[in-house]
Design goal:
Layout lengths: L2 E5 L3 H4 L8 E5 L2 E5 L1 H5 L8 H7 L4 E4 L2 H15 L6 E4 L3 E5 L10 H14 L5 E5 L2 H9 L12 H6 L10 H9 L5 H5 L3 H8 L1 H10 L16 E11 L6 H18 L1 E12 L9 E11 L2 H12 L8 E8 L3 E2 L18 H17 L6 E4 L9 E4 L10 H12 L8 E12 L2 E3 L5 E11 L13 E9 L5 E7 L2 E7 L2
Parallel strand pairs: 2-4
Antiparallel strand pairs: 1-6, 1-7, 2-3, 5-6, 8-11, 9-10, 9-11, 9-12, 13-14, 15-16, 15-20, 17-18, 18-19, 19-20
């Protein structure tokens, strides 16, 4: 096993992005963490609030909020699901990721380590990261700021021996007792007899040393990914231009995609909410629903659709908070990769992805009601033979049932049908018994008789009873047309692609 520890030393401060500088987080009247401006003025952790204000009268104070920190750790754990599903949340400020199974997928130890550290920073958190074969060793190395990976359990005594005792989070009494033994580092501690340490400092302390060195198992409770995704992000400042919300939206999207990766699914719809600033006239949140042509967990694809919507969104008031919600994930078919590492063809290959992107962009620009697909209906009259349905890109893998359904649909069509059907048949001139459309038409196939429909003749907005003879015709401009003749004359009804 290989554990990556992410310790977030500035988490209590970073969960308040809108705090003015200089600022500090306090608990029980003592400073927990301060920003760079406050630290440069001498405001350090452990300082009393009165002393901090003496150093820096303009210092902004905020009480520590454990609820915000837990929510931030949960959001970060969802994001980390994009790298591994084996995650442990250790409040108040640490995450553990078991990454041994992810090394080949991300190109090895160094690329994976850098991607996680960089991604954590892009999520808005400062992290101290470390890699080790045991979870406790990874934690201690991260607390010490030791970024050098430790990949071999045999190296643990040497690597841990370089650490100060401060990383062990001992009580003041235990530290004083160890000092009386002449212990100044973990290396000094490891040279002492384990049985004597257990008698003087407790069996739990000796067991922790054994777990850190891999001599005892160290089972950890795994993070349980929520059934539904619902996260929010406070904005560092008031945002009046909707397009500026895209940056914060991307942070939530990457967390969503990590959650989806851990749940092995995708979404075809998600919902953004933008909460507005409080004032004399409180406004309800602006809701933005994103819909996709097929289930996806591609962060770039979701962010692209969000950007298209934000370009056309006008905020009624400045936004202060952004939230993202998604229901239970849908099954997401896998990719087929060829010898060159490219996705295979078919509906699920590059063509399917580009088609989905086109449909989503058109929906974002024109509105969901303006873009639809057609579904066949068991009806012989052409106007009633199809109905609009939400556009969905076909799945990458067809089931046998789907193939049978497609074959049955093809068998029901006894004559060719055009892809482009006019909304209303267009009347054609007739010269010497021949229909005219930019000149005389030459009839290539037909007639195909379509008649009846008396059952809806009296209903409004219906086709009613028809009696038509359909032909495939070609014009002088080489256009392939679908025309029919009825008692009222000749009509153009469709155009072949």
């Amino acid at each position: 096993m290989l554990w990556l520890a992410l310790h977030l030393p500035r988490l209590p401060l970073e969960v308040f992005p809108s705090l003015p500088s200089p600022s500090a987080i306090v608990s029980r009247e003592r400073v927990v963490v301060a920003d760079a401006a406050a630290v440069s003025a001498g405001v350090l952790p452990g300082l009393r609030v009165a002393e901090a204000w003496a150093f820096l009268p303009a210092l902004a104070i905020q009480e520590r909020d454990a609820g915000r920190e837990r929510a931030a750790l949960t959001r970060l754990a969802c994001w980390a699901g994009g790298f591994t599903s084996e995650i442990c949340v250790l409040p108040p400020q640490t995450l553990l990721l078991e990454v041994a199974g992810s090394l080949r997928l991300f190109g090895g130890v160094a690329p994976l380590f850098e991607r996680i550290v960089t991604g954590c920073r892009e999520q808005g958190f400062t992290s101290w990261a470390a890699l080790a074969p045991t979870p406790l060793a990874a934690q201690w190395l991260a607390f010490a700021g030791d970024r050098e990976p430790c990949l071999d359990a045999d190296q643990l005594p040497q690597r841990l021996g370089r650490l100060p005792l401060a990383v062990l989070d001992l009580s003041a009494q235990s530290r004083a007792r160890l000092a009386s033994f002449g212990v100044r580092s973990v290396a000094d501690l490891l040279r002492l007899p384990r049985a004597g340490l257990a008698r003087r400092l407790g069996a739990d302390f000796a067991a922790d040393l054994a777990r850190a060195l891999g001599e005892l198992p160290d089972p950890r409770a795994r993070f349980v990914f929520p059934e539904r995704f619902s996260e929010q992000l406070e904005l560092p400042m008031r945002v009046e231009n909707a397009t500026a919300l895209g940056f914060a939206g991307r942070r939530l999207i990457t967390s969503l995609c990590g959650w989806l990766a851990a749940r092995r699914g995708g979404i075809s719809e998600c919902l953004f909410e933008f909460a507005h600033e409080r004032g004399a006239r409180q406004r309800s949140a602006t809701v933005l629903v994103l819909r996709f042509a097929g289930a996806t967990r591609d962060a770039e694809r979701i962010a692209r659709v969000l950007g298209e919507h934000l370009q056309r969104l006008e905020l009624p008031a400045a936004a202060e908070l952004i939230s993202l919600r998604a229901e239970a994930p849908e099954a997401l078919p896998g990719h087929t990769v060829n010898l060159l590492g490219e996705y295979g063809g078919g509906a699920g290959g590059a063509g399917g992805e580009s088609l989905a992107a086109l449909v989503e962009r058109l929906q974002a620009r024109l509105g969901s009601g303006s873009v639809h697909a057609l579904s066949a209906v068991a009806e012989h009259r052409p106007e009633n033979a199809s109905r609009p349905v939400p556009p969905r890109v076909p799945a990458r893998e067809r089931s046998p049932a789907g193939l049978l359904a497609a074959a049955a649909l093809r068998d029901t069509s006894c004559a060719p049908r055009p892809l482009w059907l006019l909304a209303r048949p267009q009347i054609l001139r007739e010269v010497a018994g021949r229909p005219q459309c930019g000149g005389p038409l030459r009839l290539l196939a037909g007639p195909e008789r379509i008649e009846s429909g008396w059952w809806d003749d009296a209903e409004p907005a219906t086709v009613g009873d028809v009696r038509r003879d359909y032909f495939v015709a070609i014009s002088l401009r080489a256009e392939w047309l679908w025309v029919f003749r009825s008692r009222a004359g000749w009509f153009l009804h469709g155009v072949f692609s």
